[in-house]
Design brief:
heterodimer; A: alpha/beta; Rossmann fold; 7-stranded mixed β-sheet; B: alpha/beta; two-stranded antiparallel sheet
Chain lengths: ~375, ~425
Amino acid sequence: MGFVVVLLKREEKRMFGFIRQRAACRGNHASSLERGIRATALRTFSSSGKEMTVRDALNSALDEEMSADPKVFLMGEEVGEYQGAYKISRGLLKKYGPERVRDTPITEAGFTGIGVGAAYYGLKPVIEFMTFNFSMQAIDHIINSAAKSNYMSAGQISVPIVFRGPNGAAAGVGAQHSQCFAAWYGSCPGLKVLVPYSSEDARGLLKAAIRDPDPVVFLENELLYGESFPVSAEALDSSFCLPIGKAKIEREGNDVTITAFSKMVGYALKAAEILAKEGISAEVINLRSIRPLDTSTINASVRKTNRLVTVEEGVPQHGVGAEICATVVEESFYYLDAPIERIAGADVPMPYAANLERIAVPQVDDIVRAAKRICYRSH
Amino acid sequence: MACSATAKIIHNPLLLSSSRSAEKSDSCCKMLGPSSFLGSTSMSKKLVSVNKGASRVSRRSANVVAVSSDVVKEKKLKSSSAASSLLITKEEGLVLYEDMVLGRAFEDMCAQMYYRGKMFGFVHLYNGQEAVSTGFIKLLKKEDCVVSTYRDHVHALSKGVPAREVMSELFGKTTGCCRGQGGSMHMFSKEHNLLGGFAFIGEGIPVATGAAFTSKYKREVLKEDCDEVTLAFFGDGTCNNGQFFECLNMAALWKLPIVFVVENNLWAIGMSHLRATSDPQIWKKGPAFGMPGVHVDGMDVLKVREVANEAIARARRGEGPTLVECETYRFRGHSLADPDELRDPAEKAHYATRDPITALKKYILENNLASEAELKAIEKKIDEVVEDAVEFADESPVPARSQLLENVFADPRGFGIGPDGKYRCEDPKFTEGTAQV
């Protein structure tokens, strides 16, 4: 993960020392990813010429929303004096004070419930989970008292709350810190689930989430925090907002559709590069929103390319890819020229050993091979 | 558990022993050191026998008072029918009486309707506990919040939700307070600031703490003139749940304007509180977190009201939370599906003699606050209200098909974009309830 070292500031380097060591042995993969990012950056170069890390994007989005609406406040472990476990809330405590940037005791169930209660009664909380794995201790409140409340109260009590934090595998953090919750939260009526990839996604979707009157689960990715993406001038504007429920076509193509979200979008774009050299033009869709899922964009794309590869980090069974396959079969069956390929994480708890971890999560080669398989160009 | 200032006597119906009435304890509830609380040696013996209900039948009536730490100052009560100073005026007395009778009559009617098949699912009745609801909620303003559990019909009624709306909700009709979408366990009312109605025990406590957090935030960050207080009602079983302790900690830490009201009716479904709890004295858990813990006789509405007054005033002044343990009893089973076989009939008979409505009636009549005729008139009026509620609910329509998809999101675009590229909620079939979602 060489590029992460370049972009981190000094204090973060100390904190993330262990991640660096872990990542250092991922030589090959990291440098190719780095190349991929640079390639993407060049291609989507915009007029502002400015680059922003996802971390800064999230930080600026929080900052702007908190300054625009005094009812917005941030609550979570280490968000205040520690500047955020992943430094997402850096500088916010100083700017807004301890009442609006609340450090909590280690009580997920308690403070999530407090956030929900505050949302019931008129405020707009942003609850940060150090990782979404910890949200399992609070999942009762996310589902039962947040997601279902507008329905149970017949519209009287809406819950304008955002639950955010890193989701999915990091580097070498073991089984209990590496689960991807997109499919779990994506199954809950009453929730909106967003999965940003780039800085522009992060900014636009977080702002949309905070302004949204419904509970939003905002799944970030720890490994993306340090990555830089170009941002347009439009994205830097403080009223910039992306619509919830619309996917983005990151790269246009004609031969095969690849859907992905979060970190996997980067991998899919890399795979598309490799496929392009072999004459396969891949269309990469960045889902941006798991619930509601933009089936309209996906289906339109499949009807154009006639082939689909879904990519996700979570396990295949009952996963996001499974849902996409089902909707595409339901709506665009006769447009398919080949069976749908589902690329997902291995059906195991995340192992610790670096080499095992690498094969437990989809890699660029897996996506390339799958695309070639359904283009009948494999071996 | 007496204050050092005035000698207080605790009468805990669990632990009957007349010899305890003269004891005085030096240490205050708030201190963390072990307090030589009353009857500690005899308690262990009583704990064993309590399950058999042997000791409960003989009852001391005269010395029932509320106990508190020295942080909560309260008047000394000589007996439940103190002649020296009346605790309530006539108007207040009639309001309390009417509220309790409404709660009782309503719940009795619910039972009838359930057995006739008009009500279904899980229904948890509040008979016997009316003093707690009335004693606390009648002191609140409309803007104050109440958060309850699944045993929430009477909390809704006390807070001001019309009986018609509650009954319709129970029947699952569209005129219910939640349009039939919530049900018995999920009573919500934005107008009356009833924030639910939660099926999971312990779930309401953090939500209540959050509402209190909002009150404080409004006052300190938004600089609004806000002194709203939140009451969280929950049971004895909940006091063993992790969320309870998490919230006691945070409420005391951040000095939130909340009162934690424990309705200790001694039983979860069939699990006695004593079998489930290492230290059954719940009020003691308050001081462990730095807030006063108060124990009060929950079958006496006047005592509850007095303690409630002080706790709510404390919260309004910004001094932080209070934990109030109300010892009460439910006359019926846990829910209408519960055959209620595990509780000792002697225990039930004992508490039946301490019916809070009868006690208040007696107080009112003995102190000449109102005549028998006035009370009878109130009872008749309540009967009519309840019958009208049933009629209203009966005649109300069931929800339309299209209501299925409504209110899932405040912003219905949350249903996403349909196959035609437009938002699903814009499809006319969606509002008719015939769209495939």
